[in-house]
């Protein structure tokens, strides 16, 4: 919240004060409660065609830039929904071969960061009918790996960490770039300046 306030994000914390029933996601599958909460939140926003929604995990990330930068980078890609990407597949390694090949960049979906136009995000999360302790990343992965859904929803991954930087398995490709007024995280593999820095799994 400190970095969100610093960069003037409008934040809605989903599930604040609600008991966590999504399992121990640091050790096993889980996190479905996040999808349910987002599904409930999106019902009131579903018809706002020009609204761009950013959904991120709550306790293991910081913002390194403002919403204007995220919006500009997202719109440059001409997609309707963009998921964070990472180099390690989770939770089902058997799905690796079903992922589209990428010439350069991270190949696998990470559910800790999602940005997209409200009707499209709503379309995805409205398909959720599982339990709070089912796996959110597996849910999103199965939708993304369906070629027809991927095309109709115009979905892609942030392969080169333009917006989302997951640190798990990638700490060695990230360095701090010191400017005159602030410091940015720089991904040296893709020469990008990610805006959302996510300390997922053991990198918190």
From TrEMBL:
Entries under InterPro entries matching the protein: Collagen_mod_GT25, GT_PLOD
Pfam families: GT_PLOD
Coiled-coil stretches noted in the UniProt entry, renumbered to this chain: none
Residue ranges occupied by any PLOD1-3-like GT domain in the UniProt entry: 1-204
Organism superkingdom: Eukaryota
UniProt name for this protein: Procollagen-lysine,2-oxoglutarate 5-dioxygenase 2
Organism listed in the record: Ameca splendens
Gene that specifies this protein: PLOD2_2
């Amino acid at each position: 919240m400190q970095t969100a306030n610093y960069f003037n994000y409008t934040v809605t914390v989903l599930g604040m004060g609600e008991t966590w029933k999504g399992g121990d996601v640091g050790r096993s599958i889980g996190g479905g409660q996040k999808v349910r909460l987002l599904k409930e939140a999106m019902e009131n926003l579903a018809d706002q065609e020009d609204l761009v929604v950013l959904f991120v995990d709550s306790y293991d990330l910081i913002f390194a830039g403002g919403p204007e930068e995220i919006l500009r980078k997202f719109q440059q890609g001409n997609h309707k929904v963009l998921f964070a990407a990472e180099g390690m597949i989770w939770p089902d390694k058997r799905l690796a071969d079903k992922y589209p090949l990428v010439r350069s960049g991270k190949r696998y979906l990470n559910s800790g960061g999602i940005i997209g136009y409200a009707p499209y995000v709503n379309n995805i999360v409205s398909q959720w009918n599982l339990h709070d302790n089912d796996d959110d990343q597996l849910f999103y992965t199965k939708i993304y790996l369906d070629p027809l859904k991927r095309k109709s929803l115009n979905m892609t991954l942030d392969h080169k960490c333009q917006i989302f930087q997951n640190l798990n398995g990638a700490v060695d490709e990230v360095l701090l770039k010191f400017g005159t007024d602030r410091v940015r995280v720089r991904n040296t593999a893709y020469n990008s300046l990610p805006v959302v820095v996510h300390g997922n799994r053991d990198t918190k």
